[in-house]
Amino acid sequence: MAGIDKAAVVFSIAIALAGVGIAVAGDAAQNNPTYSAPVEATPKVSTETSKSEPQADPFAGIAEKVKSGDSMKEEKAVKLEEKVIMKDPKVEKPMVKEEKPMVKEPTGPTTHTVDIPVGTSVPGCEESNACYLPADITINAGDTVEWINVDTAAHTVTGGSPADGPSGVFDSSLVMADAVYAFTFDDAGSYDYFCMVHPWMVGSVTVN
User: Fold this and answer.
1) What is the pLDDT of residue 167?
2) Which residues lie in Polar residues bias regions (predicted)?
3) Of 178, 182, 170, which Cα lies nearest the Cα of 194?
4) Which strands, in side-by-side order, build the sheet including 136-139?
5) Where are the alpha helices (DSSP H) in 98-168?
6) Residue 102 vs residues 4, 40, 70, 96: alpha-carbon distances, Å
7) Sequence ranges of the binding site for Cu cation
8) Rounded to an integer, what distance in angstroms lies between the CA atom of residue 132 and that of residue 126?
9) For residue range 124-159, what is the model confidence (pLDDT) as tens digits?
10) For residues 124, 128, 133 and 138, what is the CA-based torsion angle, rounded to 10 degrees?
11) Which residues are bridge partners to 205 per DSSP?
12) Nearest 5 degrees, angle CA 142-CA 143-CA 146?
């Protein structure tokens, strides 16, 4: 439509100019007998409808700005998330309270057990030092040792040695099967003992 309107305006102006030119030529011919009116070319009016140039979309720039704004927001959000996840090196680690190992308070006197094994009434246990189990024991002063006879034969727990005889410090006399003999060692030292019935049976108690 804009092309057609422009063509009509141009056509109207051309007609008006042609009329003015004819009037001026007539006046000149009347005033000057030698004047010859110029031949005026008829103005060409283009009947072709000019194609209107495609107009740019005024909202295209806004859309691009909105898209770029969204991408910038997403980028800021990612950066903010990275800042939240990253640890601040200036923040000190929380102090961890070190627990001190608990020191066991010294306990009172302890009772230790020594077995008189089955079959010790026959020689052979002395070869592996297994006539009393354990044959050698270490305790503290004030501790007690209990000898339990799990053999079927009777035995003794007598302080001393087969070579020197009884020391007189302790003596159980005969300990029958399944019987128990106990002795408390109050003084530090090393105490050897043996069985008077089966002299190959020997043991020792060390008192700290």
Assistant:
1) 95
2) 44-53
3) 170
4) 136-139, 202-207, 189-194, 158-161, 165-171
5) none
6) 106, 126, 62, 18
7) 155, 195, 198, 201
8) 9
9) 999 999 999 999 999 999 999 999 999 999 999 999
10) 140
11) 137, 191
12) 140
pLDDT band at 84 (very low <50, low <70, confident <90, very high): very low
Annotated binding site: 155, 195, 198, 201
Hey, what are 194's tokens?
A: 């043996």
Cβ–Cβ < 8 Å for 23, 29? no
Q: Phi and psi of 100, rounded to 5°?
A: -75, 140
Q: For residue 90, what is the DSSP state?
A: T
Share of the chain above pLDDT 70, in %: 49
* Tens of pLDDT, residues 151-208: 999 999 999 999 999 999 999 999 999 999 999 999 999 999 999 999 999 999 999 9
**Alpha helices per DSSP H over the chain:** 2-31, 60-85
Distances from the Cα of 142 to the Cαs of 99, 130, 134, 158, 164, in angstroms? Answer: 33, 26, 19, 19, 26
- Residue 118: both structure tokens together: 């089955």
